[in-house]
């Protein structure tokens, strides 16, 4: 609609000179111009609103798709990425795309229509001048392509550096206690500042290319306008064009020039968005965990067998973590894994949860190879109480219900009661609705452990994994937690990672792990009595310390 404005404005000048048109009254033509502006303002409102509506919904879908892809990716992906980098992908990069879709594309759409429709109007009104003006456009297009390549490359580099800076923030905030304990505030501030300096350096380089491109566009554009006006003035003086047509042409040329200049900046913004989209697409193109159809069952029996398992982490292929390991647990049995740190105990649990694929050998669950189990179906039958419990930053109710989202309040309370958690929950004014703080920081270690136990009770798994859940608790709290664990272990296959040997005396079988192999197997009494045995040596070391700091 606005493109009719220069044409009508030219007729206003011609009407003042006495030339005839559809409307010869200059006041009437002025009202037409005002009407054009009013209609254009309405179109502009709906253009901005529609683009914003489409972009907001599109960005929501992209964020959901990106987040869904992230949480469904295998552990091997997270081994090679840092949390801050991934957060940057779903925040900074998607925000860049959002700005492009909501603002830049709307402007791009408007500028392109203005450019092409303006040229059509010019060909209709003043074809000779239009051909003269169009000589410069191919040159501008070629230069735009060259500059765009550099801008896109630098924009992607800027986003990478920004992701690295976000990693520093994420690590510092997660380890704030350590940072303050070692008075590392200044070190972390300097580390963050140096990362941001790299971001600024690359961003300024990209801005330099973008600024040079825009400056050239403006100079070439308005230089061309001066040349066109000069040529038009010669046509007017020769009587080949009216003053009104020249005014219309100049206004159209200004519109077109503004569009070309705007396209220069928009082109740079689009190139930056392409850099961000490449980072987003890298994640969206990653392969998720393999889903196996037909392997879902309501409940496993609980038998577990590791058969000559060899394994190394994908990031450390030269180091074999498990070397021909074989262990087994019948349904309802309690076994323990003992050994020094780094022996491979935690790796066994990660393989059991199918976080990684076995290198060779096999893991059998209810007699079926773990390769034939769907990860979701498998993990639905396994519960875990870790040594360090990290809770979600919601309420106690939300954290316990995480194991079973459709659980009733009665089921929640029963799980909390069996976990000896009601003892402290009932003391809170808000009860189950008490907020636990980020990562459960508002609760003590023993309280977090009992919430984790309540969560495992609510899940009712066939296989239970205990990563020495009482190793860092005081005697009174340990007694409450141990009592809750005893209830939890009844009737379930239980695998305990032993940090303190005093807690595994009553298990059915103990496997002593060293360098990824089982070097000893038996119960506590038989292994303790074995002369020169590795387990007996560990017992002597730990119970010698008991005289200084009792563990039982």
From TrEMBL:
Keyword Hydrolase annotated: no
Domain spans labelled ABC transporter: 304-540
Keywords linked to the UniProt accession: ATP-binding, Membrane, Nucleotide-binding, Transmembrane, Transmembrane helix, Transport
Location of this chain's protein in the cell: Cell membrane
GO BP terms, alphabetized: oligopeptide export from mitochondrion
Domain of life, per lineage: Bacteria
Coiled coil: none
Record field: transmembrane: 29-50, 108-125, 131-151, 213-234, 246-267
Domain ABC transmembrane type-1: 1-272
GO cellular component, one term: plasma membrane
One MF term in the entry's GO annotations: ATP binding
Annotated membrane topology: Multi-pass membrane protein
Main localisation: membrane
Presence of the UniProt keyword Transmembrane in the record: yes
Protein name, entry field: Lipid A export ATP-binding/permease protein MsbA
